[in-house]
Amino acid sequence: MSDQLIQEAPLVGIKSKLAAAFVKGPKDFGLVERAFMTHVTLRGDPDSPAFRGAVEEVLQLALPSGQTITASASGCSAVWMGPDEWLIQSVEETGPELERALRQALAGEHHAVVDVSSGYTVFELSGRRVREVLAKGCPLDLHPKVFPVGCSTQSHFFKAGITVLHIAEELYQLVVRRSFAEYACLMLLDAADEFIR
Amino acid sequence: MAQTNRIPQGGRINRAVPLTFHFNGKTYQGVEGDTLASALLANDVHFVARSWKYHRPRGIITAGVEEPNALVQLESGAYEVPNARATELELYDGLSAKSVNAKPSLENDRLAVNQKIARFIPAGFYYKTFMWPQKMWPKYEEFIREAAGLGEAPTVLDTDRYDKRYAHCDVLVVGGGPAGLAAAWVAGRAGARVILADNQPELGGSLLRQPASIDGLPGLEWVARIESELAAMPEVQVLRRSTVFGYQDHNLLTICERKTDHLPLARRQGVRERVWKVRAQRVILATGAHERPLVFANNDRPGVMTASAVSTYVRRFGVLPGKRAVVFTNNDQAYQTALDLYEAGARVTVVDPRTASYGDLPQQARRRGIEVKYGTVVSHASGDLRVSRVTLSRYQGGRLAGDAGSLDCDLLAMSGGFNPVLHLFAQSGGKARWDEQKACFVPGQSVQAEISAGACNGDFSLARVLSGAVQAARRSLELEGFALPRLPAWSVEEQGEAPLLPLWLVGDRDKVGRSDKQFVDFQNDVSAADIYLAAREGYHSIEHVKRYTAMGFGTDQGKLGNINGMAILAEVLGQSIPETGTTTFRPNFTPVSFGAIAGRELGDYLDPIRKTCLHEWHVEHGALFEDVGQWKRPWYFPRNGEDLHAAVARECLAVRNSVGMLDASTLGKIDIQGPDATTLLNWLYTNPWSKLEVGKCRYGLMLDENGMVFDDGVTTRLAEHHFLMTTTTGGAARVLNWMERWLQTEWPHLKVHLTTVTDHWATFAVAGPNSRRVLQKVCSDIDFAPQAFPFMSYRNGTVAGVAARVMRISFSGELAYEVNVPANLGRKVWEALMAAGAEFGITPYGTETMHVLRAEKGYIIVGQDTDGSVSPIDLGMEGMVSKAKDFLGKRSLFRSDTRRHDRKQLVGLKPLDPKFVLPEGGQIVAQPTSGGMTPMLGHVTSSYFSPILARSIAMAVMKGGQSRHGERVYVALRDGRSIEVEVCSPVFYDVEGGRQHV
């Protein structure tokens, strides 16, 4: 992972702005960029046992079939994006490695596996005000009754598409497209203005 | 200054905190808890406004949102608010306001003279009067707008912060009066997620002005108890100072929460107003009722108020608005006002058109010795700037029946009954139903998931309000599947009440146009006579009468007067009120500031600003940026104070003579996988794809259904069933949507998956005769030899240590490569290429140079040289249109219009003056023109100075242009000049195309 040292995160342009926003610490609302996570888009027939079997063998997890997230013991997770689409996240393997492994396992099955690691970044949002901040730009109901821990959904925050993952009680992840990351981050900071000042 | 009308004790105010405020330049004192209206009344200021059209003196009529008169221009500069309602403005220290529509001052209003000519300017007069001469209309309009108007738009930018949020709940309760509180409490107890929104700073609604006893507690103590219990329920949210202003489809309700308006300017911080967009499973409307005025002559004199407003000022604000009061009512409720006034020390006479009333309140009033004149009406009010006397008439059989003397007074409290506030119900799609017994419109069938409760449902007794609210909550909970809590049975003493006597127009019908005006709509100066006139002139639909008279327009939208107006129209037309119907209730319930509607999406936050992974590098190297769609792209990189022209010339020549590099990461990129990928491409593009070899690239044109070009780009075959498509920067999302639409709706059987990889890959165009040598320095695992890696092919390799896809394609006509690497590593690779190219003078270039280079080669830019009406044939690209296969848009290419030979076709233009650069958009004409009508042959689409050719060049679309090469035509300029140009091929440079093949 020597690339790690020379990779550049999507939020590079507002690094100092982001640091300055939390000088008082992320008490009610915190935002951290988890850059360089591996993201692979997986498409395939959810009803094909061969497809599921091959994927689950490689990833060591059960592919989710609702708006949920499943995870393997080795730090790999699968996010349901639609009836025949998943976003595979990993912190262990690189995108090209995962892409190669999945393609090999799925040879002969109609599928698509695409490394999009550089295409997305992840914001980790925390704190007791996090849902209020999200409510400023995301029209979905994220109340824990409706969207408990372990759920995922695609939505938008103002005009940026987002995938929301409910990781823990007051901890959410947003998967954001690289080119929208700075905008989405600035909108989040602006929405959180009253909680981080 | 003394608050002469302040009652020594009582009310929801804090006399220990005096507040100073300024109105029309004078300084007054109020106290904490006052509104501007109550503070003015405390200082015995009734005359606060001039009316819209006649400039009559006007006073405060109400104590709430329905106020038509007491509109003020609040504050100035960045905090200026036009048409604020004094009845809703919470007083703060230092508040400054002035009357609207009065110049130079309220007392000396220049246009007060309009009162004298009022007879001659009834409804519709200007439609008839100002019609000729027609060309004078703009002058007339200026005068009318000056004369008739309300507040003035602020001229300084609003510095306040506004925002919005979404919210979701099981039950949204609108209104914090007894009904709303009861319903919210029941729903909250069931564990439902509840939002209660109330437009006042304090909960309680009508209980703030009415004595009541609930479960043996005084009304406001019950309110306090409910309020504290609601506060303890974690899923209940109470929004004060929050007006639900719209009921939209799918139970989306919009609320404006005012967060800082009640504070002195210096203490305001953070968000001023927040718009809540609430998706509610169920809505309980508990919006209360507005009292109706009575329609008699001069009923607009300052000092004439609705009875409930008078009670509000006495009981809630501790202000006695007059000492010698007449209460004119057709119902029992207003007797409470008589009692309130009496207890506060006023002399009171009640005037009641009914023959008698044995309800509890009238009996109480009579027991206290309050004089009641039954069978009597107030037919006329006198007094100039304040009511001073009312004339009474006997009232029999719905007609005036002779003089009944007069009364001196300084306050007239009037009550014509109550109108349920149906605005939100009506906005939800519901139709109002006329209740003959209650003489008011009540909610009919629900259309959306809502229930009305309390006074807005036509329940005017407290016992029925509470029981109705409990039932509304119960029904909502049942429908949402909640287990019911134990339902409360709050005990309230029922009061006996006699029925009201509908009274829509007091005065004589036959004198309606000749006596003093009897106002129906105060804000728009619409009198009963105007409605009569409208009916005489043939306007019978209530919607037409509204437009003819202006009744129901304005900031109050007819909250006070509309029902009276409809009833009067019904009587004139000899039809019933339900036959006459109501006008449409539209959002917004009360005006909403532009700031709140804009929220935070202002300036840089209006739209996403998308940046490539090299953005910071570009900034560091002095790039100026151009907006392309949402992207920021480097436009050019000036050095040492170069202007655009000089920088672009340098960048262009670097590419033509050595090597340059462009950040092309914004190009749309779509990964296409599956056995049917070629089938899909064959449908999408005009040219065939089946035979494209793996490792090869091909340019494609995409047409819409009309056969018009809508995107283009190069697609590469990465593997047998795997392609990478590129689209235009601005077209990426549109193309992906287009492809998914066809796949999902028409061709679901195709086995192919699309994935957007625009953001994943950073793309650099390395262009120029030295580009090969640059790449060879940083990439050792690709053979760059011309035969090994020919034009329009692709190789995988390692560039500067990073796995890369390298395509040999060119948008400049030079030997060129596109290097694709993951964006997280983009800057590293870019910098390595810059370092490797240093010895060749590698030059970063921007979009302007890219445009010039491609124009020299006659390459189109979709969206610049095309506009959605240009076919491939028009572009001279018929060779790219397959005859052998079908594709989207093909059939349209055979329509007679598409085959016309005189369609606008792509051409090149060379100005005879080689230094003159034509303006893009310039019109092509056959002969020099000096402003007369001339047939237009086409227009310039792209125009530049070409440094390599040392002359100006342009691309254009021109009627029949392909057969007119060599002709001379003219381009007309805005300044009247005509520039002679030669029509030519759009390929200006390296016509044989040898340079990109080297």
From TrEMBL, chain A:
It comes from Pseudogulbenkiania ferrooxidans 2002. This is Sarcosine oxidase gamma subunit. InterPro entries: SoxG (IPR007375), TrmE/GcvT-like (IPR027266). Pfam families: SoxG.
From TrEMBL, chain B:
One of its GO terms (molecular function) is sarcosine oxidase activity. Keywords: Oxidoreductase. The keyword Oxidoreductase applies. Gene3D superfamilies: 2Fe-2S iron-sulphur cluster binding domain, sarcosine oxidase, alpha subunit, N-terminal domain, BFD-like [2Fe-2S]-binding domain, FAD/NAD(P)-binding domain, Probable tRNA modification gtpase trme, domain 1. Residues 170-431 form the FAD/NAD(P)-binding domain. Belongs to the GcvT family. This is Sarcosine oxidase, alpha subunit family. The lineage of its organism: Bacteria, Pseudomonadati, Pseudomonadota, Betaproteobacteria, Neisseriales.
